[in-house]
Design a protein that fits this description.
OB fold (Dihydrolipoamide Acetyltransferase, E2P); five-stranded mixed beta barrel; ATP binding; alpha+beta; four-way junction DNA binding; globular; single chain; 202 residues; DNA polymerase, domain 1
Length: 202
């Protein structure tokens, strides 16, 4: 099982990237959001992966952040949601937006993704709602829900620090998640907060 790749970004296409790891090029399918987050060709990248094994092929799907990979796994367990549709959903919605849409039963938000009709959007809500926790009605996702999507040991503390500095919960959670993706789950609290502040200020 290949769970993560670290290497140089060799090239990108409409729905994939090629990552050069020690002279071996790995073709990795990806959402448009992940492709945009990888940066310029030739730069060092780290990408979380899911390996799809079929009778006649082995494919890799990549994600800029671990929570995107986790959502991909959840989505592809829903009947009627294959890899292409899951990536379309993750291209249209940030993980936190998707969490909020599912928790609040907002099938119209999910149906914004290419290839997702109202019936499939409703099925996604029905099958995933009990698996992801709830969000306050009419409001943004709660801190508990945000922390559930952040995996590092200091993610919750960094999130709290940014909110105490005046950032909104959604802004803080996106910034901390992005910082954690860059630094890794073992980053110190100081490094995580500093990078998250720079990302939130952009």
């Amino acid at each position: 099982m290949i769970a993560k790749l670290k290497g140089l970004l060799d090239s990108t296409g409409i729905d994939h990237a090629i990552i050069d790891v020690g002279g071996v090029g790995y073709l990795v399918g990806a959402s448009s959001r992940t492709l945009a987050a990888l940066g310029p060709v030739g730069e060092a990248v780290t990408i979380h992966t899911e390996m799809l094994v079929a009778a006649d092929s082995i494919r890799l799907v990549g994600f800029a952040r671990a929570e995107e990979r986790d959502w991909y796994r959840l989505l592809t367990h829903v009947q009627g949601v294959g890899s292409r549709v899951a990536l379309a959903i993750l291209s249209a919605l940030e993980p936190l937006e998707l969490h909020r849409a599912v928790a609040m039963g907002d099938k119209a938000m999910i149906a914004r993704a290419n290839g997702v009709g109202p019936k499939l959007a409703q099925r996604i809500v029905n099958e995933l709602k009990d698996k992801i926790g709830t969000a306050p009605a009419g409001g943004p996702i709660g801190v508990g829900g945000v922390v559930a999507l952040l995996t590092g040991s200091f993610a919750a503390d960094a999130l709290s620090a940014l909110q105490n500095l005046g950032f909104k919960p959604h802004e803080a959670s996106v910034a901390v998640a992005a910082a954690e993706a860059d630094l890794g789950e073992d980053a110190s609290l100081d490094a995580l907060v500093r990078l998250a502040l720079r990302k939130a200020a952009k």
